[in-house]
Design a protein that fits this description.
Two copies of one chain form a homodimer.
Chain A (H helix, E strand, L loop, with lengths): L4 H22 L3 E6 L4 E6 L4 E6 L7 H32 L13
Antiparallel strand pairs in A: 1-2, 2-3
Helix pairs in contact in A: 1-2
């Protein structure tokens, strides 16, 4: 099972490199979200960085409403970003790793 | 080195459980950030969920400025949240794991 330790180490290094590459690539994956009939639009990366927020003039009259819409839109976008991020990094981390039944540290 | 496989599996399961517990706990760790002399204040959890956004009335007159301030404040808060998140999860994942020099999948 662990006969080839150096081979296993090589595969771990490889997986590590793939994780780093994937992290960089996720900066270029953009997620758009809109609420309030498009009056609040946000764009975030799959690394959960906010790239753009667009607020319609009509929402500037009610501060509380605007704050609530922003929270909803951003959390929706960040949730999707987090899901994509975890999936992609798990895939990269798993590449070349042995499959141990019942074990899934990267889920 | 791998003499006690079942002992190692037990430690992996333990680490996995600690990761899950830590994820839950990070929902209660709050990070505050303020920009524009406190005219934009945000609160996020260490799991990168936005809990509060507070905008001063004075910023409602300039939409573009407001959007920019929001992006800066939120990204500052999310960056700190991400750092805390990674540190805490790495610590949990490492608990009981063997230390292999040159290998750090959880950094």
């Amino acid at each position: 099972m662990f006969g080839d330790i150096s081979g296993m180490m090589g595969k771990l290094k490889e997986a590590q490199q793939k994780v780093e590459e994937t992290k960089k690539r996720l900066d270029t994956v953009l997620i758009d979200e809109a609420v309030a009939n498009g009056n609040v639009k946000v764009t975030v990366t799959a690394n959960r960085e906010i790239k753009a927020i667009s607020i319609d003039e009509s929402l500037l009259e009610d501060k509380e409403e605007l704050e609530d819409y922003l929270i909803v839109a951003l959390n929706k976008a960040l949730k999707r970003a987090g899901e994509i991020n975890e999936q992609e990094l798990a895939l990269a981390a798993k590449s070349g790793m042995p499959n141990i039944p019942g074990m899934d540290l990267f889920k």
